[in-house]
């Protein structure tokens, strides 16, 4: 309780309104950072659970892997470090906790590392994005989809509008690439439209840590029009 109270005191200028549950597509992550990822997952994985207006609320509350040891099987599968796929890597989780989790911990339901990571895994499984996209007939393709069609299909299932983020085309004749899909939650942990004007998301370019320096995804809210949902690239040993 002392730690939680200290957190609330530190977060005077870090109040937030909504949580953003972020899924990312590993193939796009690898393309963005020009990393020759070896066999990235061929399913949507967790990027993080982000309060909308706060970051690094308590820099003294360091990540402790021991607190989530019983979650590691699910963490490694659903929340892998796409860039550093070694099973012993926890740098990505450390980053997400220290930047976002320490702020989400303002809620009693998220006020420990165990609660924060457990809840994010729970959201991921409940949303079940991979299965839903397949049921909707939205699969990685060499042809293009329309952003509006993907949005409408997702709204038909979830009843709320998620936010789609894309990589911009590198050349004028190229097409934007689908990179992230976000779902927004109130502080009562209820789904809400991400298009709600009250939902503010300053973390459109969150960092995935390398060993030494942060790397930011150059994503933006997808524009209406065609979008490429890239199939996983085959790698060679």
From TrEMBL:
It catalyses: a guanylyl-uridine-RNA = a 3'-end 2',3'-cyclophospho-GMP-RNA + a 5'-end dephospho-uridine-RNA; an adenylyl-uridine-RNA = a 3'-end 2',3'-cyclophospho-AMP-RNA + a 5'-end dephospho-uridine-RNA. Ribonuclease that plays an essential role in innate immune response by recognizing and degrading RNAs from microbial pathogens that are subsequently sensed by TLR8. Cleaves preferentially single-stranded RNA molecules between purine and uridine residues, which critically contributes to the supply of catabolic uridine and the generation of purine-2',3'-cyclophosphate-terminated oligoribonucleotides. In turn, RNase T2 degradation products promote the RNA-dependent activation of TLR8. The lineage of its organism: Eukaryota, Metazoa, Chordata, Craniata, Vertebrata. It comes from the Eukaryota. It holds the Pfam family Ribonuclease_T2. InterPro entries: Ribonuclease_T2_eukaryotic, RNase_T2-like, RNase_T2-like_sf, RNase_T2_His_AS_1, RNase_T2_His_AS_2. It is found in: Endoplasmic reticulum lumen; Lysosome lumen; Secreted. Keywords: Disulfide bond, Endonuclease, Endoplasmic reticulum, Glycoprotein, Hydrolase, Lyase, Lysosome, Nuclease, Secreted. Belongs to the RNase T2 family. One of its GO terms (molecular function) is ribonuclease T2 activity. One of its GO terms (cellular component) is lysosomal lumen. GO terms for biological process: RNA catabolic process. The keyword Glycoprotein applies. This is Ribonuclease T2. The keyword Membrane does not apply. The active site is at 47, 96, 100.
């Amino acid at each position: 309780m002392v730690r939680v109270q200290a957190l609330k005191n530190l977060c005077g200028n870090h109040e937030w309104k909504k949580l953003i549950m972020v899924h990312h597509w590993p193939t796009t992550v690898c393309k963005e950072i020009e990393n020759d990822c070896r066999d990235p997952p061929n399913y949507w994985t967790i990027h993080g659970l982000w309060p909308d207006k706060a970051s690094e609320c308590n820099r003294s509350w360091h990540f402790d892997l021991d607190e989530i040891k019983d979650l590691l099987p699910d963490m490694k599968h659903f929340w892998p470090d796409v860039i550093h796929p070694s099973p012993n890597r926890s740098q990505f989780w450390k980053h997400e906790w220290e930047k976002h989790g320490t702020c989400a911990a303002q809620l009693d339901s998220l006020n420990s590392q165990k609660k924060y990571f457990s809840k994010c895994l729970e959201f991921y499984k409940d949303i079940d994005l991979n299965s839903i996209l397949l049921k909707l007939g939205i699969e990685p393709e060499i042809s293009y989809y329309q952003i509006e069609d993907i949005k409408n299909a997702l709204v038909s299932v979830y009843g709320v509008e998620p936010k789609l983020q894309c990589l911009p085309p590198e050349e004028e004749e190229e097409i934007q690439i689908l990179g992230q899909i976000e779902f927004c939650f109130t502080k009562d942990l209820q789904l809400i439209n991400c298009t709600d004007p009250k939902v503010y998301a300053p973390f459109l370019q969150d960092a995935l840590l390398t060993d030494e320096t942060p790397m930011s995804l150059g994503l933006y809210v997808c524009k209406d029009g065609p979008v490429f949902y890239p199939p996983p690239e085959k790698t060679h040993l």
